Amino acid sequence: NPRAQALLRAFGKESVFCPLATTCGGGNAVGEMPQTEGEKGRRLRIKIISMGAAESGKSCLIKRYCEKRFVSKYMSTLGIDFGVTKFKNEDIDVSVNIFDLAGQPFFFEVRNEFYKDTQGALLVYDASQRSSFDGLGDWLVEMRSHLPNPTAMDNIIFAVCANKTDVSHREVTESEGKIWAETKGFLYFETSALTGKNVVEMFHALFAAVVATVLNGQKPARINFDLKYTPEQVALVTRIRCCEGSHEILSLPKDCSREE
């Protein structure tokens, strides 16, 4: 896209803009891939994007999965980074195109060119930074506003990643993140790019769910997909999940008897 390329050139990062026609041999970003004579099984190409606040660890998660290593000093993504990885789903050879979207607000015009045709999305936040969690809804709004129609998000598989769970201090609890994801029908994972915790499991679950959606023509049913919880209900469930016992749930002293 000329506008996206111009924006990337302005930031001296044109090299991160990798058109699919150059990187993947042409064709669409998604769908069935042509097979040569004698090939067995099926081949599929899917499109995944990563979204989330700057420095939440999106790029580090992708690098941990693709290269099996952690990079302690990582330059923030400027515009878009693009890569391809392979995934085997039963008899299907899947080529996964991953678009890593920059989290800084001033790159929104570049990001907006890449939401179309998305089939799976990583929604990443830093568990030690509440602001990155509170901003997740804004990413969904931005994405929805730049898709071709209002229902385009219905068949996109989302995986919410509470990243940097290796840190000693958390500002967002596991239960709070899980409730937020489950009320929207999203997958949820506690991840750490540093230690590798749940990184492979998260990517494989996302890829498999996207493949199933492509083959079945609709998103697999998930529990609680249509449930709507108020902030007060979320806070209550979070408090209950964090309680150690019935006395604490009921806000009673531990030495309180059943009769009392």
Automatic annotation (TrEMBL):
What InterPro entries does the record tag this protein with? P-loop_NTPase (IPR027417), Rab_GTPases_membrane_traffic (IPR050209), Small_GTP-bd (IPR005225), Small_GTPase (IPR001806)
Q: Which molecular-function annotations from GO does this UniProt entry contain?
A: GTP binding; GTPase activity
Query: Do you know which CDD domains this protein is assigned to?
Result: RJL (cd04119)
What PROSITE patterns does its record include? RAB, RAS
**SMART domains under this entry?**
RAB, RAN, RAS, RHO
Name the family the entry cites.
Answer: Belongs to the small GTPase superfamily. Rab family.
Question: What protein does this entry describe?
Answer: DnaJ homolog subfamily C member 27
